[in-house]
Amino acid sequence: MALNLHLLRIFTTVATTGNFSQAAKQLYISQPAVSRGVQELERQLDLVLIDRSMNSFTLTEGGRLLYQHGLHIFAAERAAEIALEELHGLVRGQLALGASQTIGTYLLPPLLRQFHRRYPGVRLMLDILNTHQIIERLVSAPLDLAFVEGPVDQPNLIISPWRVDTLVVIAAPDHPLVKKQPLSAADILAQPFIMREIGSGTRENIEMAVKARGVELDIAMELGDTSAIKEAVAAGLGISIVSEATIKLERAVGKLVVLDVPDFILTRTMSQIAVAQRPLSRAATIFQNMLKESIE
To answer: Cα 122 from chain centroid?
Structure first.
């Protein structure tokens, strides 16, 4: 029997994500269509691929075997696509990037504009999520490269330092601490903080730095993105710590103030991440080289 590659792609995506709804999103089809596709493949093969008696997603022995072959087949397909992209000299193609919020919102857009000017035929895609979510997206294959702020410790990834970022303490211009500068770390750590959600790279960096001092932050509010945090701080709801790159406009117009805390200087290394043994597309390779040029 000839193997239906369309159904195999559906099954392999389900097995990779371990989730029918996530597979549907990646394949741009409905979840019922994914379920029907897997069931039809099982019917054609006369083989149960997924153990539906388990509470968690579990492949049968036959499912695991087919999944490994599916990975090899679609890796070969991707390698063929890459070869054709290179043959066309990047006249067309796709560059799929993922970034945590600070990088995706403030740092990558100017670089993507530069890349687009050089290669206008390449379709650009940028997913912006927190560090943990971006790594999940990278591993499950939709992304060529990921750029994150938080620490990552996961096998089968190539993690390279990209750039150093400075974190600063911000407050509203009329906050009482503004008139008491310069401040000590104890001054600011006694204040209520507005922070990103758990899973945010910025939050992880801050919490590690504070934990090293033997204290815990008083988190008065959690918000899901940096823009919301800046608005909350400007409204006087608390202070926060953000990347210096995110507040250029607010500082220029006097909406936010960077507090002077000489004994609390935070920096972090942002990382570029690829999946080991997954070939990079021509577009991703050229983008990597462009990043190196911009640093040099």
So the answer is: 21
CA 63 to chain CA centroid, nearest Å: 29
Whole-number Cα distances in Å, 140 to 18, 32, 100, 136: 10, 21, 16, 6
Cβ burial, residue 26 (10 Å; 0-12/13-18/19+): middle
State the CATH class of domain 94-155+282-295: alpha beta
Tens-place pLDDT, residues 34-70? 999 999 999 999 999 999 888 889 999 999 999 999 9
Query: pTM of the entire structure?
Result: 0.67
CATH topology of domain 5-86: Arc Repressor Mutant, subunit A (1.10.10)
Burial (CB < 10 A; 0-12, 13-18, 19+), residue 239, is buried
In this structure, whether the domain defined by 164-269 belongs to CATH 3.40.190.10 is answered with: yes
Bond from prior residue into 182 cis (ω within 30 degrees of 0): yes
Alpha carbons within 13 angstroms on the beta-carbon side of residue 194 total 23
Q: How many angstroms separate the CA atoms of 49 and 82, rounded?
A: 30
The helix/strand count (H/E) of the chain reads as 12, 9
